[in-house]
Amino acid sequence: MDLVFHLGLTKTGSSFLQHKVFDGKIHTLDRSIGYEQDVRIARQFQDFFLKSDRSAWRSSKGRSWFDKLNEGYDTSALISHESLYDHIPFIVPDGRLIKEPELLSERLASIGEFCWPHGNVKVFFFFRRQADWFASIYSHVAYTLSSPSQEHFERSTREILAGRAPGSHVVDYARLHEALANVLGPENVLALPYEAFADRETWGKIKNFSNLPIQFDRIQFTDTSVNTKRQGDSGKWRPASKITLLGRSRLAQSVQRMLPTSVSQSLKKRVKRTFEATWNISMPDDLRDEIQSHYAISNQRLSDICGVDLAVHQYFPPGPSNAFDG
């Protein structure tokens, strides 16, 4: 029986999958105990995973994380966790080097060596066109920044591209794939474009790769209720705020319920807007071209590795580019 990690890069549908498909992060699918019950365990596992060294997985405490995942089931065990790879730029680093994909790979290799002798350790992840991902992830972490703004987003993004800020390599997906494949074996790594998230072919690949009991026809891809920042097809992303994390939508709903039933719908809508972000992040065309040109060679390499034509999803800009290659 294999141990499959869905290393969901943040803002590539991870929350949707954990809420609507896997029903959890650690105890998932037919092992599920429910997303809400699984959250505490997932946080503890994340903390242990990021802070432990190689020898920790040799210990009884390290092995104990996987005991229940190996009990009485015929299919692979799945762990879906977007925070096992510390891959988020724009935030001031805390001194750790977890952003290195090679260190992530070493941890997974140690788990395979010491904790999972029953089969292979496998990894699949979705990646996203870098320009869209930068905008989405900035909106996601805006609440942590002292003065988030459109101008700050553009300046910070260009600093990342210039190598003056941490995180430029986290969206070098070819490097991530190669680091994982070097220790787990290329047959045990699957990378998929987020732009094909709802395609039947994508989920056929996941099912064949993982041997997990996933039923494509039951996935409600039109459900955008989970942690969605992009404003439809407008090219704008709504920033998060501290109130969002404390339950902005629930707070708005509570206030609306307190209003008399006679209050007009327009007033209720104004109350709702009070608890919503009042500005959006946008991606200017010139910055989009800079980003995709910067990662073009890496993306072409990834296209060859995955056997997927990423040019269809605009990972390659038209014309010559001064591109980043690791």
Description of the structure:
It is built from 13 helices and 6 strands. It is globular. Residues 242-249 and 319-324 have low confidence and may be disordered. A 4-stranded parallel β-sheet has the order 2-1-3-4, sandwiched between helices. The protein has a two-stranded antiparallel sheet with strand order 5-6. Helix 10 (248-258) packs antiparallel against helix 11 (265-274). It is of the alpha/beta class. The chain is 42% helix and 7% strand. It starts with a strand and ends in a 20-residue tail after the last helix. It has helices at residues 14-20, 35-51, 60-64, 101-114, 130-141, 150-161, 173-184, 200-210, 242-245, 248-258, 265-274, 285-294, 296-306, and strands at residues 3-6, 77-80, 121-127, 189-193, 236-237, 281-282.
Q: Give the overall silhouette.
A: globular
C-alpha termini separation: 35 Å
Summed up, the helix count is: 13
Query: What average pLDDT do the residues reach?
Result: 83
Low-confidence segments, ≥5 residues, pLDDT <50? 242-249, 319-324
- Per DSSP E runs of 2 or more residues, the count of β-strands stands at 6
Order of helices and strands: EHHHEHEHHHEHEHHHEHH
Reading side by side through the largest sheet, how are the strands ordered? 2-1-3-4
Strand content: 5-15%
